[in-house]
Amino acid sequence: MDKEILRLSINKFLRLYFKSCKEVYKEIGLDKISNKQFRYLNIIYNNENITASKFAKIAELSKPTVTEIINRFIESGLAIKNQSDFDKRVSYISLTTKGEVLATSNVIESSRFTDNVIAKLNSDELETLSKIFDEME
Fold first, then answer.
1. pTM score, two decimals?
2. How many CA atoms does the CB half-sphere of 92 hold within 13 Å?
3. pLDDT of residue 29
4. In principle, which of 25, 78, 106, 136 could form an S-S bond with 30, CB 3.0–4.6 Å?
């Protein structure tokens, strides 16, 4: 089976997966999370002791925009600010458990997943799986 055909079929499955995720996010009041916001959550998640200035630099955003983003995350219960013990002018941003779960829920890459599937299934099984994914749409 052609890898590209299978990858496209798996993408159909992933679209269904992400649609389900959006339904869950809606149920918990997070249905307005955009792809950019997922990216921003991941920046915080991947940078321990990140400040607003460092966040702005990594995200290539202005400091006022970053302040607005961080405040929205705090209001949504996704992030918290902790004042530095050594310099009261410095605050570190970190994710709450809810924010961490959300940040890490969008890490699926279809190409890697496809490689893993190809490694585990024979050609006939891949054909069947592809047909199953096609029927799900």
1. 0.61
2. 14
3. 66
4. 25
Say which residues have a Cβ less than 8 Å from residue 80's Cβ, sequence separation at least 6: 74, 93, 94, 95, 96
Phi, psi at residue 85, to the nearest 5°? -70, -25
Question: Residue 28, Cβ neighbours under 10 Å: how many?
Answer: 11
Residue that has been written with the tokens 């089976």 in this structure: 1
Q: Cα separation of 74 and 70, whole Å?
A: 6
CA distance 19 to 25: 10
- Counting every residue written for the chain, the total comes to 137
Q: How far apart are CA 44 and CA 94, in angstroms?
A: 6
Q: Domains of the chain (ranges plus CATH)?
A: 3-136 (1.10.10.10)
Which tokens go with 28? 């918990």
pLDDT, tens digit (0-9, with 9 covering 90-100), for 73-125:
999 899 999 999 999 999 999 999 989 877 877 554 556 678 878 888 899 99
Helix (H) or strand (E) holding 95: strand 91-95
CB 78 within 8 A of CB 70: no
User: How far is the C-alpha of 137 from the C-alpha of 26, rounded, in Å?
Assistant: 21
